[in-house]
C-alpha cells in the first residue's frame, strides 16, 4: 500500500489553526494527526474537545486522534462526537485493552493502539488481529520536537513481521522525530503511516515538507 502522511497539529500555530488546517487540506497529506495530552499519562497538556471540534469544522481529511490520556474509555464517545475518524489509545493506559478496542470500533472509528518506546511489540500478539492500526512511538510521548529513538526500526521490523502473520492490512504508524532524513528507512522498516509535527510546521514551506515525506 502507498504510505500515508499525517501532519500533527500539535506543532501548528494555534492562533492560526484554520490557516494551518487549510494548508493540510491543500497538501499531499492524508490524515490530520491530533494529539491529546492530559498532564497525567504524559507530563504535558495539549488541548481538548473544543479544539478537536474546531479542527473538524475546517479539515477535509480524516482526524487521526492520538489519546495520551489515562482511562481513555471515559472519553471515546466525546472524541467521536468531536470528529475523530480514528482513535488510538495507549497500551500502557488500558488494563482492559480488548474491551477498549471493541468500544472504539462500535463507535464506527478506526481502532489503534500505541506503544511507548519501552513496550515490546510482542505484547500485541493476542490483540493485533482486532486492530486497524498500531502506532509505534519513536519518542517518549508528551512533546513535539524530540529526538528520534533508533530502536524504533527494530520495533517496526517486529511489527511488520507480526502483521504479515496475523493482520496484513494493518496500518503501521510511526510518531515522533519523523523527518526527511529518516523517512526512507522508516518505510523500509515497515511503517506505512508517518506522523510529522515539527519537521512540517517548522519548515519554510510546510506543504513542501509534506510533499517530500509523501514522495521521498
Ligand atoms: C508526541 C506526539 C507526536 C508529536 C510529534 O508525544 O504524539 O504526535 O506531535 O511531533 P514531532 O514530529 O515534532 O516529533
Ligand atoms: Zn501523536
Structure, explained:
It is built from eight helices and eight strands. By secondary structure, it is an alpha/beta fold. Strands 1-8-7-6-5-4-3-2 form an eight-stranded parallel β-sheet. Helix 2 runs parallel beside helix 3. It is globular, with a radius of gyration of 16 Å. The protein starts with a strand and ends with a helix. The structure holds D-xylitol-5-phosphate and zinc ion.
Helix content: 25-40%
Strand order of the largest sheet: 1-8-7-6-5-4-3-2
Q: Which structural category do the helix and sheet elements fall into?
A: alpha/beta
| SS element count, helices | 8
- Spans of at least 5 consecutive residues whose pLDDT stays below 50 are none
Q: What proportion of the residues form beta strands (DSSP E)? A: 15-25%
Molecules bound to protein: D-xylitol-5-phosphate, zinc ion
Q: Please state the CA-atom Rg, rounded to the nearest Å.
A: 16 Å
The oligomeric state is: single chain
Find the count of extended strands (DSSP E, 2+ residues): 8
Task: Label this structure with key terms.
single chain, 216 residues, alpha/beta, 8 helices, 33% helix, 19% strand, binds D-xylitol-5-phosphate, binds zinc ion
Provide a concise account of the structure shown.
Helix content is 33%, strand content 19%. The protein is an alpha/beta fold and 216 residues long. The chain has an 8-stranded parallel beta sheet with strand order 1-8-7-6-5-4-3-2.
Write the layout of secondary structure elements.
Blueprint: E1 4-7, H1 17-25, E2 32-37, H2 49-58, E3 63-68, H3 76-82, E4 86-90, H4 97-106, E5 110-115, E6 133-137, H5 152-166, E7 171-175, H6 183-189, E8 193-196, H7 198-201, H8 206-214
Helix pairs in contact: 2-3
Amino acid at each position: 500500500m502507498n504510505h500515508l502522511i499525517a501532519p500533527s497539529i500539535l506543532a501548528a500555530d494555534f492562533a492560526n489553526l484554520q490557516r494551518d488546517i487549510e494548508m493540510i487540506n491543500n497538501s499531499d497529506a492524508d490524515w490530520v494527526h491530533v494529539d491529546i495530552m492530559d498532564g497525567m499519562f504524559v507530563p504535558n497538556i495539549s488541548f481538548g474537545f473544543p479544539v478537536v471540534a474546531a479542527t473538524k469544522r475546517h479539515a477535509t481529511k480524516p482526524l487521526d486522534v492520538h489519546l495520551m490520556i489515562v482511562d481513555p474509555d471515559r472519553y471515546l464517545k466525546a472524541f467521536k462526537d468531536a470528529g475523530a475518524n480514528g482513535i488510538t489509545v495507549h497500551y500502557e493506559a488500558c488494563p482492559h485493552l480488548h474491551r477498549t478496542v471493541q468500544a472504539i470500533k462500535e463507535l464506527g472509528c478506526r481502532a489503534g493502539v500505541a506503544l511507548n518506546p519501552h513496550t515490546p511489540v510482542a505484547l500485541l500478539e493476542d490483540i493485533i488481529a482486532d486492530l486497524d492500526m498500531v502506532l509505534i512511538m519513536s519518542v517518549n510521548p508528551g512533546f513535539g520536537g524530540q529526538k528520534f529513538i533508533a530502536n524504533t526500526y527494530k520495533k517496526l521490523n517486529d511489527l511488520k513481521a507480526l502483521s504479515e502473520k496475523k493482520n496484513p492490512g494493518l496500518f503501521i504508524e510511526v510518531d515522533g522525530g519523523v523527518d526527511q532524513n529518516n523517512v526512507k528507512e522508516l518505510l523500509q522498516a515497515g511503517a506505512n503511516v508517518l506522523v510529522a509535527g515539527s519537521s512540517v510546521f517548522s519548515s519554510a514551506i510546510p506543504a513542501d515538507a509534506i510533499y517530500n515525506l509523501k514522495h521521498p
